[in-house]
Specification:
With 278 residues, this protein is an alpha+beta fold. It has helices spanning 20-41, 48-55, 59-71, 88-100, 103-118, 160-168, 171-181, 194-207, 249-269, and strands spanning 75-78, 83-86, 121-128, 131-138, 153-155, 210-213, 220-228, 234-243. The strands form two sheets. Strands 5-4-3-8-7-6 form a six-stranded antiparallel sheet, with helices on both faces. A two-stranded antiparallel ribbon has the order 1-2.
């Protein structure tokens, strides 16, 4: 067995091919990002002392890291107390994520998995004003299936994806849409009174998924759940749809949580969050 000489004083021994510098760089990067996250969560900026306490680092280390981040434009210092704030460069980097995010392409694998799990057709829709617009679909393998034309529209009050997104909107926006658009009847099951619609919205918010009981098309039932963006605003909705004969009430109660879970995963995938109080 061969032996290696001990490391000189002040130096740490390390395995051949391993670099202590790399470890130090990773540690510095982690600390710098922790400071950025700390500043991002704070309202009104933080003093150097505040930052040090929150990230549990000595003031000298925090000052060195802040100076580096400031030189790169990720943070800046302002005010009489010398508080630190997130800088423009951090916004630029964050915005590149939003610009590169492809809602449809990144949602498709989740839709295909949901179709495999449920055996029903999966739809993806976005909100456009007071209507839902279908932007993607993964058809099931059954002979009888529900097919929608991509780009087609559905009312918010009378479709699975529409009701999911409708319920995700702020109350004042819902009220405004009800006053402008009303609740026109489409089928015999369409909700046409504000009182019933508000009751439905409360149920959707509580359980996390909507239910279209032949309200948009006779013979078709659907469950759907909203997807949120990083501002807790509605990004879209994902749904499961099929013939009523294959979706009795018991099956609907099974599929509802399944589609809600897929919507939750997509919300996390896009860095989204849920509105407070929902």
């Amino acid at each position: 067995m061969t032996s290696r000489p001990a490391a000189p004083p002040g130096k740490r021994a390390h395995a051949p091919g391993k670099s202590v510098v790399v470890t130090a760089q990773v540690q510095s990067l982690t600390r710098g990002l922790s400071i950025l996250e700390c500043l991002a969560k704070a309202e009104g900026g933080l003093t150097l002392t505040d930052v040090g306490q929150r990230v549990q680092l000595p003031p000298s280390t925090v000052h060195r890291l802040l100076a580096t981040l400031e030189k790169m434009g990720y943070v800046y210092q302002a005010g009489e107390l010398g508080r630190w704030y997130v800088g423009l460069q951090a916004f630029t980097v964050g915005s590149s994520f939003l610009a590169s995010r492809d809602f449809i392409a990144q949602s498709h694998p989740y839709m295909r998995r949901l179709m495999d799990q449920s055996g029903e057709t999966v739809n993806l829709a976005i909100l456009d004003g007071t209507e839902a617009v279908f932007v993607d679909q993964v058809q099931c393998r059954e002979m009888m299936r529900t097919i929608v034309k991509l780009g087609s529209r559905a009312p918010l009050h009378a479709s699975g994806v529409g009701k999911a997104m409708f319920a995700s909107l702020p109350d004042d926006q819902i009220d405004a849409i009800l006053k402008v658009r009303g609740l026109p009847r489409i089928t015999g099951n369409t909700i046409t009174t504000p009182e019933t619609m508000w009751a439905s919205i409360r149920v959707i918010r509580q359980r996390g998924w909507s239910f279209d009981d032949e309200e948009h098309a006779q013979g078709t039932r659907c469950v759907a759940s909203p997807i949120y963006d990083e501002h807790a605003e509605t990004l879209g909705a994902i749904s499961l749809a099929g013939p009523s004969s294959r979706l009795p009430d018991e099956r609907i109660r099974q599929l509802g949580p399944l589609v809600a879970h897929a919507a939750e995963e997509l919300t996390h995938r896009f860095g989204g969050k849920w509105p407070h109080g929902r």
